[in-house]
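The instructor's notes for this session suggest beginning with a concrete chain rather than abstract definitions. Hand out the sequence below and ask the class to guess, before any prediction is shown, which regions might be ordered.
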Amino acid sequence: MNQTLRHVLDWLGSGLRESLAMVWVTFWPLVLGFGLSGLVQSMVPRDGLRAKLGATTPVTTVRATFLGVISSSCSYAASAMSRSLFARGSSLSNALVFMVASTNLVIELGLVLYFLLGWQFVVAQFAGGVLMVIGLALLTRRFFSVKREGELRARVQHDVPEEQRSALATKQRLRDPRYYREGARYSLGDVTMLRKELLAGFLVAGFLSVHVSNTWWSHVFLQDHGAWGVLENAAVAPLVAVVSFVCSVGNIPLAAALWVHGVAFGGVISFVFADLVTLPLLLIYRRFYGSGAALRLFLLLWPLMSGAGLLVDLVFHALGLLPSTRHSAALAGHFPLGTTLVLNCLAVAVVVVLWVLAHQHEEGLGATDPICGMHVDTNAPSATRVRDGVTNYFCSLRCAEKFEREGEPAIKDHANEAIDPVCSMKVDPKQALWARGPDAVTYYFCSPGCRETFLQDSSTLPGSSTIERGPTP
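After discussion, reveal the predicted structure:
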């Protein structure tokens, strides 16, 4: 019995060690990636881009791609925002282009790929992402006719709030400390939303790399079969991703495990792209658009993911750019010190700074999803719900429905209190005076004096004509 227990503990220990080693190597790139992503989301106004996606042209496709690049990498948030863009008038093609760019052409993804697998995978990922964007622009209409697209738009329009215009351009935001605090909230909100995906990705990748042999993988992915093997790997990889349940940045560690165990370069790239067809995402598409449209969407995305991976593999092979060794810096069970230790210590300091900035609630410009904790752009939320006179903003319809279904217990603790923006006193939103500022956010006050001070100070801000005030909600 003791020997069996020892074997179990050794099995768990080796897998956990590998997972922790992967976290150690990628910690500072993750912090840097999410930090930069949050800053970009805060500093770049997106309403002007969103308003010009109606027709599918080269210009609007580029615009939708750029909008995705400066957005959150969370696959769930990307699918929800894609639906919102479509409901607000974007063509279906541009909405899908946004979704692909948001999950495959973002900063944090490239950084983690570089430090796990090397520069070839980063270049291949971005090149393949561009190929997918072009494919969507050319092929979406073949899968969704004008009539069908109109039917889908009518289906999703009933529950998407109208978009509002933001007040400041990028140059003005760069000089305003509030937007740096807003960037910190975006960064921590994205991590909060993706924490389960990241945890699952690192754990599964660590155990797979240690306990699953190349022989087992050879039954799923053909190896040493030349071009036919690459074709099979690229075609099968998205199907493996469907059942992996891990999406967004969380599937990069799994991609590293596949590469180390013999999967072709193009198959690994296709697997990374397939974060948008995991089973949870397919069920979301089904709820958004219906079963038939979800199936069509899968049949559109799967060949594009596989085709992009295959083409990138063939081009890299022709140019002699394929990696010569099957190695991952993180899949070795080691905890390198030196530069990695210094950078991780600096990353911890950055996390502390982000946390402090993000929790200065008194000058918040956006809102926090009360269900998942993600930071939401109040100018274009995916969903809103009003309760007790208070507008709640959500990153996705899923969170809004959970809010309705589970009621008050589903709300995080921070939703049960607010900070007076004038005196910084904590107040109960159910009993406090309130006013909605020029940024469309509802603020709560401990006294009439604080509320009047807030309204006077806000009277010169852009959008001050939208200020509303009300009695105790």
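Then share the key points. The domain at 366-415 is CATH 2.30.170 (Ribosomal Protein L24e; Chain: T;). Residues 24 and 398 are 33 Å apart (CA to CA).
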